[in-house]
Amino acid sequence: MAGGAPLQWRVFRCRKEDRATAAARPQLMRFVIALPYLWLVVFFLLPFALVLAIALGTNAPDLAPPVELGLSLKNFALLFTDDLYVAAWLSSLRIAATATLVTLLLGYPMAYAIARARPQRRPLLLMLVILPFWTSFLIRVYAWIGLLSRNGIIEQFLRWIGLGEHAGSILGTEWAVQLGIIYAYLPFMVLPLYAALEKLDTSLLEAAADLGARPLAAFRTITLPLSAPGIVAGCLLVFIPAVGEFVIPDLLGGTDTLMIGKVLWDEFFTNADWPLASAVAICLLVLLVGPIALFQRQQAKSLEKP
After folding, report:
1. Which of 269, 276, 280, 268 is nearest to 244 (CA)?
2. In DSSP terms, which residues pair with 67 in a beta bridge?
3. CATH number of 83-273: 1.10.10.10, 1.10.260.40, 1.20.1730.10, 1.10.3720.10?
4. Helix or strand or coil: residue 69?
5. Residue-wise pLDDT tens digits, 155-190
6. Cα–Cα distance, 295 to 297 (Å, whole number)
7. 8 Å CB contact between 138 and 265
């Protein structure tokens, strides 16, 4: 071939380039896969190891930072033997579980209504659910202080119907904390439920109706089981941050409302006891990550079954 390389040589060169590209592809894939693990090591494992090292140390107010490293387990033992910390753990779990249940009871009808609305209206309804996220979380919690205060709208309404004889009976109580958590985390329950209900095949409900099933029976046997993944996801998204919540109990709660997030803040910033605060953080992490890992493992096993 005049003016160019022979055809056989060009074919050989192309095959050589293809082999070089194929040889480099596994290295590229390993590099891409290693990036998420590198991220976890730098931003999760290393901070976790640092917090664990502090938790195994002892408090040393004269040092900077106020920690004397060691291998002591007394901070972890104190968390499960002292009545204050045991009460804080139980109170946090109870408040978070109650708020999760209420958000589920409120969020399920909302998600179901959005999923069954006309397709043209769904974006608007979803935007209304997400709209609170456009405002700062702290500002929204402060707004509840005005609503629940002595001259707030809610207190005035309760006094008007005769249920709020004592002014300021809501703000500073566990009821205020529950209201704040339910309001703040309700969208986290609605969105996973909507994602699960929107995929529901309505022909199954029609078939159940043709077979004589009443709406309640069809909901119990078809809709509810098929929406179980959304229920679990929503409950985890609400329960996990609610257990360690600090801002809402600090602003809306009182001295009688104990939550482990508030205890963690007080130990770290008020008492300057870094080892004990780190032990609280480690126990809280284990308490929340453990059930999630077990749930994911169970879900993986169920997907592997034929």
Report:
1. 280
2. 59
3. 1.10.3720.10
4. coil
5. 777 777 776 665 556 888 888 999 999 999 999 999
6. 5
7. no
